């Protein structure tokens, strides 16, 4: 099944949008707002979760994924991809 496992090199347009706008550590709600998305579940599964799984975004508090202080930032891989986009 090809579409269930996305190749690391093929980033979805959602993940690309996320990389493009993430320029500092940001909370999920702030990112969602910046992306102008209303559906929190959709945002989490199609943007955040996918970006984390692909290794382009990381949590600032990985040991407490549900912390209200949780923020997200680009990994080195994410930064590299962002540079190549410009």
What structural keywords apply?
single chain; globular; mainly alpha; 47% helix; 86 residues; two-stranded antiparallel ribbon
Q: For the terminal residues, how far apart are their CA atoms?
A: 33 Å
List SSEs in N-to-C order. Answer: HHHEEH
Percent range for β-strand residues: 5-15%
| Biggest sheet strand line-up | 1-2
Q: Quick one: how many beta strands?
A: 2
Give the averaged pLDDT, no decimals.
89
How many H/I helical runs? 4
The helix/strand class is mainly alpha
Describe the structure.
The protein is mainly alpha-helical and 86 residues long. It has 4 helices and 2 strands. Strands 1-2 form a two-stranded antiparallel sheet. Helix 1 (13-21) packs across helix 3 (40-53). It is globular. The relative contact order is 0.19.
How does the SSE layout of this entry go?
Layout: H1 13-21, H2 28-34, H3 40-53, E1 57-59, E2 72-74, H4 76-85
Antiparallel strand pairs: 1-2
Helix pairs in contact: 1-3
Would you kindly provide a brief summary of this structure?
The protein has helices at about 15-20, 30-35, 40-55, 75-85; strands at about 55-60, 70-75. It has 4 helices and 2 strands; from the N terminus they run H-H-H-E-E-H. It has a two-stranded antiparallel ribbon with strand order 1-2.
């Amino acid at each position: 099944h090809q579409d269930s496992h996305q190749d690391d090199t093929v980033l979805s347009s959602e993940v690309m949008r996320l990389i493009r706008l993430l320029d500092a550590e940001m909370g999920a709600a702030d990112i969602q707002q910046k992306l102008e998305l209303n559906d929190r579940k959709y945002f989490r599964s199609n943007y955040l979760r996918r970006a984390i799984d692909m290794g382009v975004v990381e949590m600032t508090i990985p040991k407490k994924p549900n912390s209200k202080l949780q923020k997200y930032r680009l990994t080195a891989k994410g930064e590299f991809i962002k540079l190549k986009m410009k």
